[in-house]
Amino acid sequence: MRRKSKLSGMLLRNYILFSLTVGASVFFLLLFFVDRTNDRLPAQEMSLLKASEIIKPNVANIPSEAIEALHGWVEILDERLMVVEVKGTKRDGPAAYTERELNALFYDVEENPFYTSIAPFHTNDGQDRYCLVRLPKKNVKEVITLDGGTPENQSIFWGVLAETGLLFLVLFGINVYVYSRLTASRLTNPLGEIADGIRSIAGGRYYERLRLEANYELAQIQESFNAMAEKLEKMETEKHRLEESKQRMLVHISHDLKTPITTIQGYANALQLGMIEDEAKKQRTINLIHDKTKLVAELIDDVFELSKLESPEYPIIKKASDLAEFVREMAVEYYDLFEERGFVFECEIPAHDVLVLFNGKLLYRAVSNLLANALKYNSSGTQVRLTLEDGDQEVRIEVADNGVGIPDHLRDRVFDAFVRGDAARKSDGGTGLGLTIAMHIVEKHGGHLRLCSEGGWTRFELTLPKASAADAVYLN
Q1: Angstrom distance (rounded) from CA 379 to CA 342
Q2: Residues in Cβ contact with 15 at an 8 Å cutoff, skipping those fewer than 6 apart
């Protein structure tokens, strides 16, 4: 069986998965942001707006596109500060500069509408030149931002950032939704099934079971729930069985009482009306009435005894005694009865003491019921064997016979109340409670009674636990 993971582990794994998903989303969004920013920013960078960055030995190769895009221009000055070449559209300024005029271009005052940068360089033919860059202030931000871009670049930057943030929020919302749905389904689906199962049990459908694929904690709930449902189903089945048994018992009791009572009533009326005048017939009628009243008394006694034994509160007072001596006394008592009927009665009892805790009166009734059945339902010549076997932990009393046996269809019900071997249910066939009473007595002693039929023999095995060492000391 696959070991169930705990609910805390499932939540932790889901949280890690959620965190990794969000982290991966952020990483790829950053890559997307950088890529989109690089793709959408113009080619000009702030570095291409400075004179020191664009100087080339060949004046024709000086890149001025970024400067011209901001409506600025580039002036090439010689050693005497004469303007020898202009790249872009020059708005104002002299054809030659004095040092004083040149220095004034770098003053950052309101009257100066341009940003100015200058850098010296050497041409390919060894001449000294100056690269002077002029940029209108209104087209250039005063503060250089993080990416060093132009105002156009800045607007592009913030636009891409806004798109990326929106995309991140969408992906984050999707991750939260998926995580919450996944976690909720792993919890609510099993809990919903458990709630349905509880409603089924409340509705009396004890046969239904939970079959969840869930984590350890929920699997424990499922296991306990199914065990409870199984127990309730068994109790319900046992309840129906007991109700049917009680109903059947009432029917049987009414039948078994009605037949002898009707007979007694008929013969008593005959005697009362003087219909039987012959003394011999009158005596036989009286004897018959006596036998029937004895049978009714036995039935009432057996029903009363069975009702007491079926009660869990019925006290059983047991005493540590020698079971071997007990069985020997019963064998002596029944020996003459079997001899009179022509039975072959055999005994096999250990010579040493066999210490067992038992109630002598109740155990006598249980064993005598087994012996009485062997005597009642078999014919002359039947072998009956009474055996006591001493084991390490338990002892076994066996009553066996090779007589008519028990029909196959009755073997499973032989210990039920009012089950008798005679299909016609004759009124003189006994109460049908003997084996039921015997079974309850044995169970009250912590043992068990079972039927074994093989090799032409019918054996009732009565097993009892042996007494402990403390009980042995008490007996001595």
Answers
A1: 8
A2: 179
Q: Are 296 and 261 in contact (CB under 8 A)?
A: yes
DSSP secondary structure string for all residues of 303-372: HHHHHHHTSTT-----EEEEHHHHHHHHHHHHHHHHHHTT-EEEEE--SS--EEEE-HHHHHHHHHHHHH
Distance of CA 395 to the CA centre of its chain: 42
Q: Say if CB 36 and CB 160 are below 8 A apart.
A: yes
> CB count, 10 Å around CB of 65?
13
Q: Is the pLDDT of residue 41 over 90?
A: no
> Rounded to the nearest 5°, which phi and psi values hold at 398?
-120, 130
| pLDDT tens per residue, range 328-339 | 999 999 999 899
pLDDT of residue 342: 93
User: Of 21 and 462, which is predicted with more confidence?
Assistant: 462
Coil, helix or strand at residue 261: helix
Contact between 235 and 25 under an 8 Å Cβ cutoff? The reply is no
- Name the β-bridge partners of 398: 387, 461
For residue 164, the tally of other CB atoms under 10 A from its CB is: 17
Q: What is the pLDDT of residue 354?
A: 92
Q: Do 118 and 130 touch, CB atoms closer than 8 A?
A: yes
346-369: pLDDT as tens digits: 999 999 999 999 998 889 888 988
Q: Which of 139, 17, 157 is nearest to 73 (CA)?
A: 139
**Band (145; pLDDT cuts 50, 70, 90):** very low
Q: How far apart are CA 258 and CA 139, in angstroms?
A: 124
Phi, psi of 397 (to 5 degrees): -105, 125
Give 112-141 pLDDT, tens digit per residue. 888 899 999 999 888 999 999 998 888 775
Pairing of strands 383-390, 344-348: parallel
Q: Could you give the 3-state DSSP secondary structure of residue 116?
A: strand
For residues 212 and 193, is the Cβ–Cβ distance under 8 A? yes
d(CA 269, CA 265): 6
- Cα–Cα distance measured from residue 183 to residue 11, given in angstroms and rounded to the nearest whole number: 7
State what percent of residues in the chain have pLDDT above 70.
76
pLDDT greater than 70 at residue 162: no
The partner residues of 121 in beta bridges, in order of sequence, read 129
Nearest-angstrom CA–CA distance, 467 and 36: 92
